[in-house]
């Protein structure tokens, strides 16, 4: 059996397998909400800066720190936080689910050459 | 204050940086590099090294000189740029980096043509790559010219043109001899110098105000003719739609920048790609926090009026702040770092453009993948020379143009032409070649056409051609139109064209490979 056909057949079988479906669901159920959250938070920031600059110009008490500056620093905090959350999730949850499937895909065909791609 | 500038010290520090990097480039280079070594450094860099190099690639002159200057004169509106540039990395981290690393070999086109029609899709992706690199390169070269006017005390355009040519020649040398490995080392050295330099200056500014940020803001407000207005949005961007358009291009552009995407192939695995993006986000984020202090510091200690009269205008904010904090020697060091920044970024862009031409257009489309080992590398090296010459000429022509406009254009092109197709081909099973071609060409053409008819090119005093007016499109950044358009065209194109016979098989292969990492390219040298 030519190698490319072997890979194709394995890929289709893998894509249909419940393990892979679960992996894709694991990915989507973390990534989608995170993406919606950070994009919405960023867009909210851009929209407020564009249409309500007076709100951003509000100074906190007697200080020169404005609401806008705090929101801007908030974007930094949220970016760092999501980065760390993602990194932890990927290292602990995702890799653990994905690595066995990769090993399964790269497992040599019975007695044949290992998949060299 | 300007008469304190010492061109001789500036030149010595700069020459020392060039000498150091050249030695390293020659030490790591291989005369007979394979494609894998030349394009991807044998996938031998660690996640941390690559993360630093990504920061080096990303923190261009626009990030350092541009943002410091913008905060110094326009206050809060300058800060908005750094937020967009940083948040954009989450798109790359969550949606693109690892899946792309698993699927491709050397270029963005590898990924896009994985399950689509090889030749037309690869051609479109390569053209989009070359377009983004061209705009980005010309912007950096033009920035180099402006910086030199300040640093070396040259005032006449001929001397500036010579400097642009020197930058171009150095870039060619780094890339031809160093390949991806040499270029990556240049990025790493430069990133360390840039971040350390910014950190030292930040500490010095904070020391002046006794670590009281509120006091720094008070001084900046007092020094500015705009007063308290610098603490709020609205000094630079008065049209809200224009600002939203810029915000979209910034946040969606990064994950489509070909020279950033290519860096993911220099590491041995998707896990290392993840680590490198995490490193990059921390370094880039911390650097932008430094620029916030430096920008307000320049506003407070140098003052917007001194900046307006300085050669190089507000782009001189960081070097002039260094001059006022630490005298001519600190200024020489910071200026050399800024120069190194430009040099490293143009080298990164040049190797990306050369790889795209040699691997995608020459190797895969002209030679249909039937090249002898090493032949592509020879073509890539020749391409670097051609790109270097084009960039020198472009930089000389554009030396008085607005640098930020060209960089924002590169981001808008990346977000419109590249990002929709990258996301669709990774996540949308039904997506096909028709959709990819509609989206890429539609995004590329609409973006460039809208820019041509925007006030950035004609009609206002700050335009490239101030004396004519054909600006029928009112926004200076086309993102808000061209990005959604490219996403919609991808959907329409997919529904009106027929999928290939092997659509389902190829889609399954790509999906399994991108999500599990099975069959991804491994490291070739240890």
From TrEMBL, chain A:
Keyword check for Transmembrane helix: yes
Protein name, entry field: Membrane protein
Transmembrane segments: 30-52, 64-86
InterPro entries attached to this UniProt entry: DUF485, MFS_trans_sf
Keywords in alphabetical order: Membrane, Transmembrane, Transmembrane helix
Pfam families: DUF485 (PF04341)
Source species, domain of life: Bacteria
From TrEMBL, chain B:
Membrane topology: Multi-pass membrane protein
GO terms for MF: acetate transmembrane transporter activity; symporter activity
Cellular component terms per the entry's GO annotation: plasma membrane
Transmembrane segments: 12-29, 50-72, 78-100, 121-152, 158-177, 189-209, 243-265, 277-302, 329-358, 379-398, 404-426, 438-458, 478-496
UniProt entry tagged with the keyword Transmembrane helix: yes
Species, as recorded: Agrococcus baldri
UniProt keyword list: Cell membrane, Membrane, Symport, Transmembrane, Transmembrane helix, Transport
Gene Ontology annotations of biological process type: plasma membrane acetate transport
Main location per the UniProt record: membrane
Similarity remark: Belongs to the sodium:solute symporter (SSF) (TC 2.A.21) family.
PANTHER family to which the protein is assigned, alphabetical: CATION_ACETATE SYMPORTER ACTP, SODIUM/PROLINE SYMPORTER-RELATED
Protein's recorded name: Cation acetate symporter
């Amino acid at each position: 059996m030519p190698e490319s056909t072997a890979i194709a057949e394995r890929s289709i079988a893998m894509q249909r397998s419940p393990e892979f479906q679960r992996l894709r669901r694991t990915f989507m159920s973390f990534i989608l909400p995170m993406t919606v959250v950070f994009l919405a938070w960023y867009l909210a920031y851009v929209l407020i800066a564009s249409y309500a600059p007076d709100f951003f110009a509000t100074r906190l008490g007697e200080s020169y720190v404005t609401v806008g500056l705090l929101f801007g620093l908030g974007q930094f905090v949220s970016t760092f936080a999501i980065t760390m959350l993602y990194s932890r999730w990927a290292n602990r949850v995702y890799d653990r689910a994905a690595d066995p499937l990769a090993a399964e895909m790269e497992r040599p065909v019975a007695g044949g050459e290992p998949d060299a791609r | 204050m300007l008469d304190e500038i010492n061109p001789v010290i500036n030149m010595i520090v700069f020459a020392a940086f060039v000498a150091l990097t050249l030695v390293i480039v020659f030490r790591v280079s291989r005369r007979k590099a394979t494609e894998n070594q030349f394009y991807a450094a044998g996938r031998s860099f660690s996640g941390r090294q690559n993360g630093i190099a990504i920061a080096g690639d990303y923190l261009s002159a626009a990030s350092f000189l541009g943002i410091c200057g913008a905060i110094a004169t326009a206050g809060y509106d300058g800060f908005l740029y750094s937020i967009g540039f940083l948040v954009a990395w989450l798109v790359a981290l969550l949606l693109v980096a690892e899946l792309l690393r698993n699927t491709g070999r050397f270029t963005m086109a590898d990924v896009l043509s994985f399950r689509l029609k090889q030749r037309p899709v690869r051609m479109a992706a390569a053209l989009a790559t070359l377009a983004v690199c061209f705009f980005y390169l010309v912007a950096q070269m033009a920035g180099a010219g402006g910086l030199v006017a300040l640093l070396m005390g040259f005032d006449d355009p001929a001397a500036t043109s010579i400097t642009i040519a020197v930058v171009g020649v150095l870039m060619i040398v780094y890339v031809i001899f160093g390949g991806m490995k040499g270029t990556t080392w240049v990025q790493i050295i430069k990133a360390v110098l840039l971040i350390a330099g910014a950190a030292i200056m930040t500490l010095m500014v904070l020391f002046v105000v006794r670590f009281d940020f509120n006091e720094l803001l008070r001084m900046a407000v007092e020094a500015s003719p705009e007063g308290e207005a610098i603490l709020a949005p609205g000094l630079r961007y008065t049209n809200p739609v224009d600002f939203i358009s810029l915000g979209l291009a910034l946040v969606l552009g990064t994950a489509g920048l070909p020279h950033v995407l290519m860096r993911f192939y220099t590491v041995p695995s998707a896990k290392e790609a993840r680590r490198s993006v995490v490193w990059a986000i921390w370094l880039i984020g911390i650097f932008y926090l430094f620029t916030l202090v430096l920008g307000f510091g320049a506003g407070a200690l140098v003052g917007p009026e001194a900046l307006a009269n300085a050669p190089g205008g507000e782009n001189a904010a960081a070097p002039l702040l260094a001059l006022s904090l630490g005298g001519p020697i600190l200024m020489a060091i910071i200026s050399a770092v800024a120069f190194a920044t430009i040099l490293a970024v143009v080298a990164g862009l040049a190797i990306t453009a050369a790889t795209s031409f040699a691997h995608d257009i020459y190797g895969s489309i002209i030679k249909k993948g039937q090249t002898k080992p090493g032949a592509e590398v020879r073509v890539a090296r020749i391409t670097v020379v051609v790109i270097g010459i084009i960039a020198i000429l472009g930089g000389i022509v554009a030396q008085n143009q607005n640098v930020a406009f060209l960089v924002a254009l590169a981001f808008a092109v990346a977000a419109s032409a590249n990002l929709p197709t990258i996301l669709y081909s990774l996540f949308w099973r039904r997506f096909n070649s028709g959709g990819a071609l509609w989206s890429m060409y539609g995004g590329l053409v609409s973006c460039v056409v809208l820019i041509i008819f925007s006030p950035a090119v004609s009609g206002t005093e700050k335009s490239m051609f101030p004396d004519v007016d054909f600006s029928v499109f009112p926004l200076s950044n086309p993102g808000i139109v061209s990005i959604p358009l490219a996403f919609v065209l991808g959907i329409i194109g997919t529904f009106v064209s027929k999928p290939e016979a092997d659509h389902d098989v190829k889609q399954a292969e790509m999906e399994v490979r991108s999500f599990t990492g099975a069959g991804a390219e491994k490291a070739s040298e240890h």
